[in-house]
Amino acid sequence: MSLPRIAVDAMGGDEGVRVMVEGAAIARRRHKDFQFLLVGDEGRIKQALEHHPGMAGASEILHCEDVVGGDELPSRAIRRAKTTSMGLAVGAVKSGEAGAAVSAGNTGALMAMSKIALRTLPGIDRPALAALLPTLQEHDVVMLDLGANTEADARNLVQFAVMGAAYSRIVNGFEKPRVRLLNIGTEEIKGTDALRDAAARLSAATAREDSDLALEFDGFVESDKINRGETHVVVTDGFSGNIALKAIEGSARFVTDLLKQAFTSSLRSKIGFLVSRPATELLKHHLDPNNHNGAVFLGLNGVVVKSHGSATAGGVANAVAVAARLLENKLTERIAHDLAAMGEDALKENGRENGRQSTGKDSPDEAAA
Amino acid sequence: MSLPRIAVDAMGGDEGVRVMVEGAAIARRRHKDFQFLLVGDEGRIKQALEHHPGMAGASEILHCEDVVGGDELPSRAIRRAKTTSMGLAVGAVKSGEAGAAVSAGNTGALMAMSKIALRTLPGIDRPALAALLPTLQEHDVVMLDLGANTEADARNLVQFAVMGAAYSRIVNGFEKPRVRLLNIGTEEIKGTDALRDAAARLSAATAREDSDLALEFDGFVESDKINRGETHVVVTDGFSGNIALKAIEGSARFVTDLLKQAFTSSLRSKIGFLVSRPATELLKHHLDPNNHNGAVFLGLNGVVVKSHGSATAGGVANAVAVAARLLENKLTERIAHDLAAMGEDALKENGRENGRQSTGKDSPDEAAA
């Protein structure tokens, strides 16, 4: 069976059409069965396609001129879903014209549009944004939620664990990914009620003798261990996840900036830098977000992948490849299976309100972007 | 006027007596007016003092044999305050025998003991743990709370802003430190109710024409910008602060570990490494936590400084110096002044519960350690 085609929002991202089309073309050179629906300005897409003759038979263009702004409020963007390249790319997944959508546009808008168009899977209360982070090991670590929900109760966290494990199995190939909850200590008593409740539910569900769950639960992890690679899936609420993700990114950039300063501080260190360039290139390669590109909105009736706004064509190609793998490996069916295996106790309504308190309303604009 | 003496918990920390006494001795070589109350096993302290003849006239020993365990629950430690080196060091501040206490022991226990013995300052609801983090600039950035409170409402956050600014003024010398609230985006609508409410209070208080506040409020900051150095004080709840702090530490270690791997991957890169060693030493120096040692419990009737458990003697000396500067510059009086300048509106009770929900109880064991 051939792969369903992938809708690419050709207008999103810092570089727009050229990079998105080139990214799709690179992905297609690696996987000959990829087919695309390129959504955006037809003239500019055709121009970009001229450089990639291999794409001619593999892509259809869905013309539109409107693009969601980088700073556009999600609440405004969702009203423009029928006229913008992002809205139409997500809409193509809803209508079945495509199997997955990839966009490098405004994260908050993409999330809000995807939620409205694709709805959450049966049994999932809230979708979550998951991403891949580099580790000291060969494999990446999956972390979620990264900002789709500023709050999460125990039941949400259990659902995130199921979704993250499914993603890790497909992307990293672990049969039973090791899942931990992000906390401020590893002892049982640490953290919020929501975290302790979620830990108790996950422990009970994975300890059941008849458990058919394709994940292991290892308790809590602190944020300084995320990159060690011993944990395969780190589960957290969107506020803490976004704080951790950006702190990791900022700190890595901080250290490499310091390194640059240090390496240019004297002639001797400049020479040392030149001699050891292959080593620092290796570091750069390992840390380059393009090599870990492809954050995913999990928990929806469909696959939506968010590419970094500043991703290179190679990064976009990786995001496209992630979308294809999730399609091929039936992400949504895996999530449904594991939700069932988790059992009712783990997913019961919370006896009392837990975690960050609800804001009363559910504005799409509060989330991280 | 001579400086009040500093009580040093000589038994806490990974290395114990030798490092703590040596740290005090190094601090004293730099500041001849420092006086110490060394709390712990008299025999071992005397033995350590033999290597530091300059300390003879500058220190008194308060003998005790008990030590708080690294994993000891705060709820247990507080019942042993009268017999442990940590408890007696904090107790010396309460009784006035010392002006400040320095300990490298169990953070949660130190916090719980300090809260009980010293109580919070008038107008402060909850103390907070603040630390110094390196930046790309010359100065460190102050971040708080780092784990004393897993939750914080708008009023708590305003109080943290006042306490953090006072700390930054003393340690970094800024007249009006630039304060920001840690959030998952910089737009006004981002994040939790507590954050938005705190931002509104701080904006209003600093915008008042008659404002005598010695701080500027610059809105929100995302965690990837903490180390840039443009913000002087980063204010957050203890859960998010702990997540951000440890993510920064873990990511910096991750990058330097990768660098080590890269530098030993070939003969060429090994040679490059040797040639550029002065540069990498500079990096190591800048990132070394010993050079930013001295986390502080702010908001108490007294100065309590937490030294890293694994700090070297040089690191301990820095923690002692921080304690002395806070004493000398009358930290608690500065906080009281700024609280008054903040005005009633900024510190009013919250109309409704905000932020992370209360756990109902207030167990000292939930906090980060």
Count of folded domains of chain A: 2
User: Looking at CATH, which topology of the largest domain in chain A would you report?
Assistant: Isopropylmalate Dehydrogenase
Report, as a whole number of angstroms, the end-to-end distance of chain A: 36 Å
Supply the number of helical segments of chain A. Answer: 13
**How is the main sheet of chain A built?**
11 strands, mixed
Principal-axis shape of chain A equals globular
Main location (chains A, B): cytoplasm
Catalytic activity (chains A, B): a fatty acyl-[ACP] + phosphate = an acyl phosphate + holo-[ACP]
Enzyme class (chains A, B): transferase
Subunit structure (chains A, B): Homodimer. Probably interacts with PlsY.
Short description:
Chains A, B: Residues 346-369 are annotated as: Disordered. The structure is a homodimer of 369-residue chains. In chain A, 44% of the residues lie in helices and 14% in strands.
What labels describe this entry?
eleven-stranded mixed beta sheet, 13 helices, 369 residues, homodimer, Isopropylmalate Dehydrogenase, 2 domains, alpha/beta
Provide a descriptive summary of the structure in words.
Chain A contains 13 helices and eleven strands. Chain A has two domains: 1-118, Isopropylmalate Dehydrogenase (3-Layer(aba) Sandwich); 130-296 and 330-369, Isopropylmalate Dehydrogenase, CATH 3.40.718.10. In chain A, β1, α1 (17-30) and β2 form a beta-alpha-beta unit. The radius of gyration of chain A is 21 Å and the shape is globular. With 369 residues, chain A is of the alpha/beta class. Chain A has an eleven-stranded mixed β-sheet with strand order 3-2-1-4-11-10-5-6-9-7-8, sandwiched between helices. The longest helix of chain A has 26 residues, at 238-263. In chain A, α1 (17-30) packs across α2 (42-49), α1 (17-30) packs across α11 (313-328) and α4 (85-95) runs parallel beside α5. Residues 352-361 of chain A have low confidence and may be disordered. In chain A, 44% of the residues lie in helices and 14% in strands. Chains A and B meet through α8, α9 and α10 of A and α8, α9 and α10 of B.
